[in-house]
Amino acid sequence: MSDLSASETRGYEPTLGDYFALLKPRVMSLVVFTALVGLLVAPVSMHPVEAAIAILCIAVGAGASGALNMWWDADIDAAMRRTAKRPIPSGRVAPGEALGLGLALSGFSVVLLGLAANWMAAAILAFTIFFYAVVYSMWLKRSTPQNIVIGGAAGAFPPLLGWVCATGSMSVEAWLMFALIFMWTPPHFWALALFVKTDYGDAGVPMLTETHGRRVTRIHVLGYTLLLVPVAVAIGFTSIGGPLYLALSVVLNARFLWGAVQVWRRDEGAAEGDSYATEKGLFRQSLWYLFLHFGALLAEASLAPFGLGGW
Q: Among residues 170, 200, 228, which one ends one of the domains?
């Protein structure tokens, strides 16, 4: 945990933007989008006001997780170039303030979600916050190279959570959306680790690239992509899928698999020679991959009332 003290922030008054940065807004945007899709593709409709409150609670809960993660990981963030300017390591926000904000937002989001949607959804949100802040941040991240694999569950819960907000129950479709994000997370982050290799080593994080080497990491990228493809395509044959989703998924997965094969075939000499262009390309592709899959599910649900979406 960071040894930064409140005295180090003396002389600077944190702004609203500093506190907002603690919530990891970029991560929050993906959480909100996938949770919204999970809610909208569910077979039960929520009242618009209740749905809006539910999504707000999920967003706030995700932000709370981010604040708690930044509080605990301040020492790691300070050692990594791409995170050194975050609010705590840069001295703009005191660690205690981040902890207080994270705890307050956690309690607020869980209780309000229980009142606005149902208590099963509230329990899942509470577990998600706990899993990300405690199981992943405090334990897995610093203890095992499989941190990304197991910790990926925290980021995979939002669509399932949206579904439970609407239905009060779980289903195969909800768990497949969960599995889509869960299986996507390892190749997404390991592709990133391949071209920001020095950051994790400097921070002492046991990323797979540091503990088992870059060749093993490339094999894992391909292996998890092979596991991801059938999950993504299988959703197309469920009640929330349809011909539009299935066609798009086949194309996206063919491209993503080919990109993973290219990363697997590369050696370090070739990668360094072109500044990891292939690895960066797979990482960029992974961002669009998830957005387009969930966008296609949303499109299927939107077209269904007109007899155009779904099977």
A: 170
